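WARN  no MSA supplied for this record, continuing single-sequence
INFO  ligand: magnesium ion
INFO  echoing inputs
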Amino acid sequence: MSTPRDTQPLPPPVLELRGIRKSFGANAVLKGVDLSLRPGRITALLGANGAGKSTLIKALSGVHEPTSGEVLLDGAAVDLENPIAASRLGVRTVHQRIDDAIVPGLSVAENLVFEQIALGEAPTVASLTSLLPRARAVAAALSLDWDDAFLRQDVFELGIADCQMLLLARALVTDPKVLILDEPTSTLSQSEAERLFETIVALRERGVAILHVSHRLAEIDQLADDIVVLRDGRITATQERPFDFAAAVTSMLGEGATRDIERLEHLVGEQVALEIAGLRVFPESPAVSVSLRGGEVTGIVGLIGAGKTELAEYVFGESTGAEAGVMTLRGEPYTPRHPRDAIRRGVYLVPEDRAAQGMLPGWSIAKTFSLPFLSRFARGPLLQQGAETARAAQAIDDFGVVATGPGQTVDALSGGNQQKVMVARWMQTPPDVLLLDEPFRGVDIGARREIARRAREQAADGSCVVMLCSDVDELREIADRVLVLVEGRITLDARIDTVSDDEIVQSMTEVA
Ligand SMILES: Nc1ncnc2c1ncn2[C@@H]1O[C@H](COP(=O)(O)OP(=O)(O)OP(=O)(O)O)[C@@H](O)[C@H]1O
Ligand SMILES: [Mg+2]
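INFO  complex generated
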C-alpha cells in the first residue's frame, strides 16, 4: 500500500539556492534568497508584482548572473552561467514573457527543437521535413494533438495559448530535473490551464522538481505541495499543506491587505448606454443584438475563440472580421472607424495583450499614461508635464505599482506592474463605456481588488463597465449581469445572482 504523500519523508533537495542576491545598478532586487526544490514536488512561488520572482527565476536559469550567492544541484555547487548551461544540467525554464522565446519566421516544429538545432544536434532549419518525426514524437509524449499541418505552420499564426504550450513542450524535449514555470497560466483559459496542469502533475509523478509562479490561489491550492512567499527580494514565508492562504497573502502584501472583498452590492443600471443591433461577431455566426446599461457591470464570459475580443474591438472601432451591425451610444448613432473616434466619445478599451498594444519601449510611465489623451492635455508643454506627472504618481500609489517614480521607463517594470499601468491608464478619467479585456491577468491580489473596486465605483457613477473574461470566479468578483458568448452567439443573459456557476459553465460549452 502506498503512503499518502504528506506522511512520506521529504526527499533531499535537487536544487538549492543559498543567499542569492541580485542588483541592477543601485536597485537591489534579490536580497539573500534561500530556496530548496525537491524531486516530485511542486513548489508555488508567490509574491506581489515586482517582488523579484522573475528575477529569481532568471538567476536560476542562467539569464542573469547573481551578484552573489550559491546554487547547488544534487548537493554540488554549479555555475549556471548561461541558459544553455542551465538546460544542459537539467534546469528548464518557461519564462514569463513568451514573445522573447518564440523565434518568428520559423515553423512550430523548428521552434520546438530550436535548441537542438542551435547545438547542431538536430537537422538544420533548411530541412523541415526531416525535423517532423522528432517534433511529432515530442508532441505525442505530451498528448498534444498537433498534426503535421500545425507543426509546419509559422509560429506567427499561433494564438497565445498555443505559444505557451509550445514553450512548455520545448522545455520538455530533453528530460528536465527541474522545471520552472513563470506564470504559465496567466494567458490561458480554464480549460487550457487544466490541460497544462495534467502535464505538470504527470511530471511531478516522474520525480521532476517544479517551481510554479502564479497569482491564482485556487490553482496553487489545486497543484502545490509547498508554498514559498517572496516579498521585496526576501523569502518571508514557507508552508506545507494544509495551506493558510490568509497568512500567505499577509506575508506577501503586509498587514491590512487581507481585508475580505466587500460583498457585492448589486447594481442595476436604469439607462441603456450602448445598443448593438444585428452584429455578426464572425462572418458565419448569427446576428446578435444586445443592450448594455450604464450604472452596472456586465461580465461577458466565454472560452477562447468565443468572440469576446472581436466584440470589444468592434465597439472600440478596431473592427476585425465583425460584420457591421448598428450601434447607438446614449441614444445617438455611434459608428467608430478608429479607436480615436471611440476615445472621443468616451469609449475605452483595456486590451488583452497589454504589453504589445500601447506600451512603447523607452517611454516613461507618465508619458505612457497620457498617450491616448494627448489632445486633452495639450495646453503647452510645461502645464501638460506637471499634470501628467501628478496623475501618474497618483496611479502608482493607488494601484501599488512598484517603480522608482513616474519618470521610470515602462520596459524595466515587472510584467504585472506593466499591466497595472495599462489598466490604470484607462481608469484615470470617468469613461462612458469602459471595456476591460481580462483585466486581472498577471496582476497580484492587491491590484486585482483595486481594479475591481474602481470598476464598480465607475459603474456606480453611471459608466457602462464591461468586463471580458473566461473565469467564473473572476466574473463573480465584479459583475452584476452576465452574458455568455459561444462562437459569436449569446447563450445566457442573466443577473449574476440568479445563476449558479454550473449554469454559467454549461452555457459556455453549449453547442449550436
Ligand atoms: N533588467 C532589469 N533592469 C532593471 N531593473 C529590473 C530588471 N529586471 C527587473 N528589474 C526590477 O526588479 C524588480 C522585480 O522585478 P521582477 O520582474 O522580478 O518581479 P516579479 O516578482 O516577477 O513581478 P510580476 O508578478 O509582476 O511578474 C522590479 O522592480 C523591476 O523593475
Ligand atoms: Mg514576473
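The chain has a mean pLDDT of 87.
INFO  checksum written, moving to next record
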